[in-house]
Each structure stands twice: as C-alpha cells, then as structure tokens.
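Box S1 | Example of a co-folding query
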Amino acid sequence: MTQTTTLHDRTVGQIAAQLPGASGVFRRFGIDFCCHGDVPLAEAANRRNLDLGALETALSALDPAAAPDAPQDTGALIDHIQTRYHATHRRQIPELIELSRKVEAVHANHPEVPRGLSDALHRIWGELEVHMKKEELVLFPAMRRQAADRLAVPISEMRHDHDDHGAFLDQVAQLTHDYTPPQDACRSWQALYAGAAQLKADLMEHIHLENNVLFPRFETTA
Ligand SMILES: [Fe+2]
Ligand SMILES: [Fe+2]
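Box S1 (continued) | Returned holo structure for fe (ii) ion
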C-alpha cells in the first residue's frame, strides 16, 4: 500500500498526529512518540531494535479515514487537552502520591518496594501544576486568539518542560520495574502500578497532542 511505502520516512510524531490509532501502536511497540516525536520511523525502530516491517504492517492496518483521536479545531483541541488530560492529572496524581506513600511504608522491607516513587510523584505534581497553569493562563488563551507571533519562546519552554516530564516517566518505569508488581503484591501495590501505568499513557498522549498536533500550528508562522 502507498501508506506503507511512505511511512518509514515520516517522523513518529507526524504519524501519531495524522494516523488515527497510531499512538496506540507506538505504545505497544514501546516507541516514544511524544517527547521524541521528531525521529523518523525507521530510526525509531532501529533505536529499539524493532522489526521495521512489523511496525509498518501494524500501522498500515489502521484506517486513515477513521475518526481522529482528538478534535481537529484548535479551540476544541485545547478544550479536550484541558478536560481530558489536565483535569485527569489533577485528580489522579494526588491519589497516586497517597497510595505510593502507603505502599512504601507498609512494604518498606520488601526488596522490590518502589522507594522514592512518592517523592518523584510529589515533585512532578508540583512541576505539572505550574506547567499546566502557564498553558491555561498564558499560552492557550493566546492560541485561541491566534496570536502566533509571540509564541515561539513560551512554546519552546513548554517543550523543554515536556522533556522533563518524559524523564520523570523513565524514572517511574525504573522504580516500578516497568509497572510490574511483584508476585506477592497486595491490592494497593497492584492498584498503584496500574494507576502509574495509566498516568504514563495519559501523560504521553497529552504531551503528544501538544508537541505534535497543537504547537506546530503556531511554529510554522513564527
Ligand atoms: Fe498541557
Ligand atoms: Fe504541556
């Protein structure tokens, strides 16, 4: 198919932005499509020692004419980012901090205890709150007004913050053995890792929508 022959030259960010369902395929293959979306598909596969053909086949099985993963209109997309992601992070992270503190205290002597996870969550919670406030109070209103001329600096600051958020996700993956609880994990521990995995999925999709879909609309005219 034409789609297959051109996929490997496009960046993973472009593919995730243009092909409905592609972000799910990237997540399955462990490809970072949000913070490092500027990498061509072939190179992204190569970096992770993945079979490029299998990856292209999975992407080609998606329907390019399917409903998009997020609204296309800029105002509606910003609304979606705020209601689906900002609000969800504000709800989910404090719960995870609480749960993590409990698991770390109750299982302090367990060899696989995710020591430091609650501190990491607490830190990202503070950073994300400041970051989301900047988007909500400054950047997004300017984007809604289509004031593209002075957005290059704030957008690059947001992209930098996103890289830090990506580093946080790497740290959580390491602390939780890639979100895998031990065999004898209690329900709280299992819930903590399930919640942390959900946070990872949400944060990646959130960053992807900003880095690969929303921000480029205001960078081409800068
Ligand atoms: Fe955001
Ligand atoms: Fe952001």
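The chain has a mean pLDDT of 92. Residues 20 and 69 are 6 Å apart (CA to CA).
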